[in-house]
């Protein structure tokens, strides 16, 4: 029973398209995140939601829009995809906002923009 | 601006020997440090952590050492096992919030 699950795992699309990645956690955690792993392998935080409220919004183009319908779900929608958006996107969750960093990650969604 | 640096992209160790993975950080506001392990096609999994009030934390075969004055931490794995072969990420966060900053990772290969 996967704790943090993301769909799809692989996504290949053309520049200019709009796509979404979904994430669900069944751990009962209050806080969820999106991280991006770029070609240099760094994992960088994009967004964090605590109980459906946005608490961290890094310098991310506004083509990226997260949505949290409830605290168990955090979806990522990307408009007008660009080549530089190609990366692996990881969803994660933690017990709460004050948690000292122990995150539970999903398996990642590899996005390739052609 | 890399606040967390793992300068060794890869490390190869013989089974049974010690693996030492290193990490340096630049932000003096960081006060909590973690190591994550990642297998191919999986997400990172939490391995061990250390607070800045400590200089050592041990969990079975894994020990993390923190040298605050040098802004350096290391992960020791003793004895190393082939199943330890993975990418190891160092991460850090400041006292407030949990915006983890990750290094680029070190690939560990344990040879049997």
Q: Main sheet of chain B, how many strands, which sense, barrel? A: 6 strands, mixed
The share of residues in helices of chain B is under 10%
* Percentage of β-strand residues of chain A: over 45%
**How many domain modules of chain A?**
1
CATH class of chain A: Mainly Beta
Structural class based on helices, strands and sheet pairing of chain A: mainly beta
The best one-word shape of chain A is globular
What does the secondary structure layout of this molecule look like, with pairings?
The complex is a heterodimer of chains A (114) and B (112).
Chain A (H helix, E strand, L loop, with lengths): L3 E4 L2 E4 L5 E7 L5 E7 L5 E8 L2 E5 L6 E7 L2 E6 L8 E8 L9 E2 L3 E5 L1
Parallel strand pairs in A: 2-11
Antiparallel strand pairs in A: 1-3, 3-8, 4-5, 4-9, 5-6, 7-8, 9-10, 9-11
Chain B lengths: L3 E2 L4 E5 L4 E7 L4 E9 L6 E7 L4 E4 L2 E6 L4 E6 L8 E9 L6 E2 L3 E6 L1
Parallel strand pairs in B: 2-11
Antiparallel strand pairs in B: 1-3, 3-8, 4-5, 4-9, 6-7, 7-8, 9-10, 9-11
């Amino acid at each position: 029973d996967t704790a943090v699950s993301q769909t799809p795992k692989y996504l290949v699309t053309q520049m200019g398209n709009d796509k979404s990645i979904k994430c669900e956690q069944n751990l009962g955690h209050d806080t969820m995140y999106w991280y991006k792993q770029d070609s240099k392998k760094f994992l960088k935080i994009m967004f964090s939601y605590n109980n459906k409220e946005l608490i961290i919004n890094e310098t991310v183009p506004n083509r990226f829009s997260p949505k949290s319908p409830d605290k168990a779900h955090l979806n990522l929608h990307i408009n007008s995809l660009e080549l530089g958006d190609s990366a692996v996107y990881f969803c994660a969750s933690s017990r709460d906002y004050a948690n000292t960093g122990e995150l539970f990650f999903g398996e990642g969604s590899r996005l390739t923009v052609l | 601006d890399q606040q967390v640096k793992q300068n060794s992209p890869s490390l190869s160790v013989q089974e049974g020997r010690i693996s030492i993975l290193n990490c340096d950080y630049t932000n003096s506001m960081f006060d909590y440090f973690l190591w994550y392990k990642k297998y191919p096609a999986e997400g990172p999994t939490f391995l061990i952590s250390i607070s800045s009030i400590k200089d050592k934390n041990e969990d079975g075969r894994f020990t993390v050492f923190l040298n605050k004055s040098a802004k350096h931490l290391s992960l020791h794995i003793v004895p190393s096992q082939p199943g330890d072969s993975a990418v190891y990420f160092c991460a850090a966060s400041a006292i407030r919030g949990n915006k983890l900053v990750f290094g680029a990772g070190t690939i560990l290969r344990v040879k049997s």
